[in-house]
Amino acid sequence: MHEVSLCESTIEIIQKQAQQHSVKRVTGVWLEVGALSCVEESALRFCFDVVCRGTVAEGSQLHIIHKPAQAWCWDCSSEVEITQHEAQCPKCQGFSLRVDSGDTLQIKELEVE
């Protein structure tokens, strides 16, 4: 379950930012999750709660922003949205896609006290 290591990395970043800005408590975290990131939302939420214990983010609310993946279709020369690896182009049904984005997990916003 890679969600644990993703959450541990996220908390490390949050704690560093909290320390740099003299934040005592983080009450909300907005994570942008790409459609191709292979992250299971329920596992991410569970791991986040566990990893936050004893940190400045303990008890914080996790907000997940779903980000569609973008790909370039070599067959019809279009930028398209896809939701899974090995997808067909939604415009021409071709399989010659270059994935440009959608496999990331990023902290977008923190709410602090």
TrEMBL record:
Organism for this UniProt entry: Limnobaculum eriocheiris
Any matching Pfam family: HypA
Protein name per the record: Hydrogenase maturation factor HypA
UniProt xrefs under InterPro entries: HypA/HybF
Binding site for Zn(2+): C73, C76, C89, C92
Domain of life: Bacteria
UniProt-listed HAMAP family: HypA_HybF (MF_00213)
Residues at which Ni(2+) binds: H2
